[in-house]
Amino acid sequence: MHEVEFEKALISHLKNNKIDKKELTGLSKNLAGAAKNGLMIIDWHVIGQPPAIDGIHFTGHVDMSKVAGLNKIVADDFWRELKIFRKGIPFPNIFEVSGIADIKNQIG
């Protein structure tokens, strides 16, 4: 359910800006798909001022047992930056994932 709420919130927030619909849909489906595969998005925000949005920054956590679910998110060319850190004391049991997705195709 979390991934559906995230995808709806992202599209709702960005739909009134001058972003190509195909790119917006692809990006939101990419992140929502990663959420469906175990990425719990804990924070996200837009980079830039509307209507010229430069990108989207997100931070999330994924359990060590579901790290393979990140393959889809890593494979796409949306990413300007993607960082994956192991967390946990004394043994790493979770990964923190943060990234910046570029918004390349703006209308107008």
Describe the protein in words.
The termini are far apart. This protein has a single domain, classed as Alpha-Beta Plaits. The radius of gyration is 14 Å and the shape is elongated. The chain is built from three helices and four strands. Strand 1 and strand 2 (52-63) form a beta hairpin. The protein is of the alpha+beta class and 108 residues long. It has helices spanning 2-14, 21-36, 71-75, and strands at residues 40-49, 52-63, 79-87, 94-102. It has a four-stranded antiparallel β-sheet with strand order 1-2-4-3, with helices on one face.
Global geometry:
elongated
Number of helices: 3
Q: What is the string of SSEs from the N terminus onward?
A: HHEEHEE
CATH topology description: Alpha-Beta Plaits
Q: Structural class given helices, strands, pairing?
A: alpha+beta
Q: What percentage of residues falls in helices of 4 or more residues?
A: 25-40%
Across the major sheet, the strand order is 1-2-4-3
Largest sheet: 4 strands, antiparallel
Q: What would the average pLDDT be, to the nearest integer?
A: 79
The CATH C-level class name: Alpha Beta
- Beta-strand proportion: 35-45%
Radius of gyration: 14 Å
Integer tally of domains: 1
**Got a strand count?**
4
Give unreliable regions as ranges.
none
What is the terminal-to-terminal distance? 34 Å
- Tell me which CATH architecture applies here: 2-Layer Sandwich
